[in-house]
Design a protein that fits this description.
The protein has 211 residues and is of the alpha/beta class. 45% of the residues lie in helices and 19% in strands. Strand 5 and strand 6 form a beta hairpin. Helix 1 crosses helix 7. The structure holds guanosine-5'-monophosphate.
Length: 211
């Protein structure tokens, strides 16, 4: 069918294991590209500029907003986060499924701009596990943890806006489920309008005896 990739949004509570899930997906299958966002938050220990994020100063980020350099951006826990436009457009054209790991405000903006985007929400198996994963990371201060838990309360209100929920209990199962959902989405009629149109034209030509 069509050779354009699917734009996939992956959201989920902080600590739901999205990062690990995405890395595993990229390792396992070769038709995915993970978009690297820009942010104004400080790098965590071990994070590198251009790998986890492009770390920008606030004024640099605002300049890029002005220049239309992001397909969406949002303010999350006092910092900007945004999806660079060039990379996403290029990879989609090249037939890759492009994954954006972004929060809910950004997800809603993507849905408006790209109605065929696939929206996935990753959940830990239960809330106790969510709390354990978030606080267990040990890289965040208690204030930041509290802020993120409050934010999770807000995000939980928007889950119905997503197409699928992925329960991240067993990593391998979750990766496999995600890939199957994406493959199924790639075959939906509304993501393949051009292909269907060509088939119709061919059929009409055959019916008219032109072919
Ligand atoms: P963290 O600071 O933990 O890396 O990310 C905080 C939140 O920002 C996560 O929910 C993450 O998905 C989201 N995020 C990361 N990049 C972007 C982006 O480019 N746009 C938006 N809207 N959210 C993002």
């Amino acid at each position: 069918m069509k050779d354009k990739g699917v734009l996939i949004v992956v959201s989920g509570f902080s600590g739901a294991g999205k990062g690990t899930l995405m890395n595993r997906l990229i390792d396992e299958y070769n038709n995915y590209a993970l978009s690297i966002s820009a942010t104004t938050r400080a790098p965590r220990p071990g994070e590198e500029d251009g790998r986890e994020y492009f770390f920008l100063k606030k004024d640099e980020f605002e300049k890029r907003i002005e220049a239309g350099g992001f397909i969406e951006y949002a303010c999350y826990c006092d910092n900007y986060y945004g999806t660079p436009r060039d990379y996403v457009e290029k990879q989609l054209k090249a037939g890759k499924n492009v994954v954006l790991e972004i929060e809910i405000q950004g997800a809603m903006k993507i849905r408006q701009q790209f109605p065929t985007a696939l929206l996935l929400f990753v959940m830990p198996p239960d809330v106790a596990e969510l709390k354990r994963r978030l606080t267990g990371r040990g890289t965040e201060s208690p204030e930041v943890v509290a802020k993120r838990l409050n934010r999770a309360v807000e995000e939980a209100k928007g889950i119905e806006e997503y197409d699928y929920i992925l329960i991240n209990d067993d990593l391998e199962t979750c990766v496999k489920n995600m890939h199957e959902i994406v493959e199924a989405a790639r075959s939906t009629p509304y993501r393949n309008e051009e292909f269907i149109e060509n088939i119709r034209e061919e059929l009409e030509a055959i019916a008219k005896g032109e072919k």
